[in-house]
Write a structure and sequence with these properties.
- This protein is α+β, with helices and mostly antiparallel strands.
- Helix content is 31%, strand content 25%.
- Strands 7, 8, 9, 10, 11, 12, 13, 14 and 15 form a nine-stranded antiparallel sheet that branches.
- It binds adenosine-5'-triphosphate (ATP) and magnesium ion.
Length: 361
C-alpha cells in the first residue's frame, strides 16, 4: 500500500532497491520497485524474496506468522515477536504493562458470563474489541449500559473479545520513532490525532507539557528495548489526567508520523529504511510546526493547494473509493497557532470541494 510506496520513495536516494510482495494486481508501490504478485505466505514468492533481498521488512502488522519461518535465514525487521504481539490486543496490553506503560483496566472475555463479570469488575462504560484484525475502529462496540452487552459476540462476529474501560480522554496522542540496530533511537515529538468516523483525519505536532513528551520518550524506549526492536514504531496513547495511557502500538511506519516527511530533516520512512538496513538513524530538530490532513475517499480540491508554499501534497496513485486513504497533505507553519489556523482552513476547503463534487454526481 501507500506505506510501502513511501518507504520505497524514501529509500531510493539512499541507494536501496525494492522488491514488493503484494497479492494486489496493481499496488501503488509498483512504480517504486519490482512487484511480486502472490499471497503473503506463498512459499515460492517468499523464497524469491529471500534470494533477491538482503533485508525484508513489512508495512502492515498482520503478516501471517509462518512467513517468518519460510523467510529464514533472511532475518526480517521488525522481528517476528513484535508482530506477534501487535496482532493480538491482549498480548499487546500485557507487553505494555510489562514495561510499565499504564493502560485502561481490561479483561479478556470468551462468553456471556465473562462479560457480566467484566462489567461488575471494571464498571461502565466499557468498550468491547475483537482481539485480532481490528483497524479504523472496526470490530468495536461501546457498552454504556448492561443491555448493550447482551449480544456482543453476535455483533462482533463470534470471536474472542477484550473489554476495557472507556477512557474520558483529553486528547489522543501518538509517539513515532525509530530504533537502530545498535539500540540508538530517534523519537519524534508527540503527534495529536483527530479521527473522523473511526479513521485518522488529522495529525499535528503536539505541544503538550514536557512531562507528556518525557513519558512518551520513556515508554517508546522501554517498549522497543524490551523487543530489541529495529525500525520505526508508533504507540497510540490517550491523555487522561496528565498521564499517557497506552492504547495500541504499530510495528511499522504510521499515519500519524506522515508530517515528518516535510517537518523533519529525516522522516519516519527514511529512518525505517536506514534502521532495517543497519545504517545509523537520522536525527535533527523539527523545521517548525507541522501537521497533516488525510485525503479520504476523494482528492478533489487538492489541486487548489498547489499555489500554497506551506502545503506539501502526497498522492498515492490509488483509485477513489469511499473510506480509502488516497493521499495526504502536510502543512508547515512557523507557530503552533498559525498551523492550527491553516489546518482548519485547508480541511474546510477540502470539505467544501468534496461536497460540491458530491452534489454534481
Ligand atoms: P486504528 O487501527 O485506526 O488505530 P483500531 O481499530 O485498531 O484503530 P483503536 O485504536 O483501539 O482501534 O480504537 C479506535 C478509536 O476508538 C481510538 O482512536 C479512540 O478514539 C477510540 N477508543 C478505543 N479504545 C478506547 C477506550 N478504551 N476509551 C476511549 N476511547 C477509545
Ligand atoms: Mg488505533
Amino acid at each position: 500500500g501507500q506505506l510501502g510506496r513511501m518507504l520505497g520513495l524514501a529509500g531510493l536516494p539512499l541507494g536501496v532497491d525494492f522488491v514488493f510482495l503484494d497479492p494486489a494486481e496493481s499496488p501503488c508501490a509498483t512504480f517504486v520497485g519490482e512487484h511480486l504478485r502472490a499471497p503473503y505466505d506463498d512459499p515460492d514468492a517468499l523464497a524469491k524474496l529471500s534470494a533477491q533481498c538482503d533485508v525484508v521488512t513489512c508495512e502492515f502488522e498482520n503478516v501471517p506468522a509462518g512467513v517468518f519461518d519460510i523467510l529464514s535465514p533472511t532475518e526480517p525487521h521488525p522481528a517476528k515477536q513484535a508482530l506477534h504481539i501487535a496482532q493480538e490486543r491482549a498480548r499487546e496490553k500485557t507487553a505494555f504493562e510489562a514495561v510499565g506503560i499504564p493502560v485502561a483496566p481490561w479483561r479478556c472475555v470468551e462468553n456471556q458470563s465473562d462479560v457480566d463479570q467484566a462489567i461488575e469488575d471494571l464498571g461502565l462504560p466499557l468498550i468491547a474489541k475483537t482481539r485480532t484484525m481490528g483497524y479504523d475502529g472496526k470490530g468495536q462496540q461501546r457498552v454504556r449500559a448492561p443491555e448493550d452487552a447482551t449480544d456482543l459476540f453476535e455483533q462482533l462476529g463470534n470471536v474472542p473479545l477484550l473489554m476495557e474501560r472507556l477512557v474520558p480522554f483529553d486528547s489522543e496522542l501518538s509517539v513515532v520513532g525509530t530504533r537502530a540496530v545498535d539500540g540508538s533511537k530517534v523519537i519524534f515529538p508527540l503527534s495529536q490525532n483527530v479521527h473522523r468516523d473511526g479513521i485518522l483525519h488529522r495529525s499535528e505536532q503536539a505541544h503538550p507539557d514536557q512531562s507528556l513528551q518525557r513519558q512518551a520518550r520513556k515508554h517508546f524506549a522501554a517498549l522497543t528495548d524490551s523487543l530489541n526492536y529495529v525500525g520505526t514504531l508508533a504507540i497510540e496513547f490517550f491523555v487522561s489526567g496528565g498521564l499517557l495511557l497506552g492504547n495500541e502500538f504499530a510495528p511499522r511506519v504510521h499515519n500519524s508520523g506522515h508530517w515528518t516527511q516535510d517537518g523533519m530533516p529525516h522522516d519516519q520512512f527514511e529512518n525505517h529504511i536506514r534502521a532495517v538496513c543497519g545504517m545509523p538513524v537520522g536525527a535533527g530538530s523539527p523545521y517548525g510546526h507541522s501537521g497533516m490532513i488525510n485525503l479520504i475517499g476523494q482528492t478533489c480540491g487538492v489541486e487548489d493547494l498547489l499555489g500554497h508554499s506551506d502545503v506539501h501534497i502526497h498522492l498515492y496513485g490509488k483509485s477513489p473509493r469511499p473510506g480509502r486513504k488516497l493521499g495526504h497533505v502536510n502543512v508547515l507553519a512557523n507557530s503552533a497557532s498559525t498551523l492550527r489556523e491553516r489546518l482548519n482552513d485547508i480541511a474546510a476547503h477540502l470539505d467544501r470541494a468534496y461536497q460540491a463534487q458530491a452534489q454534481q454526481v
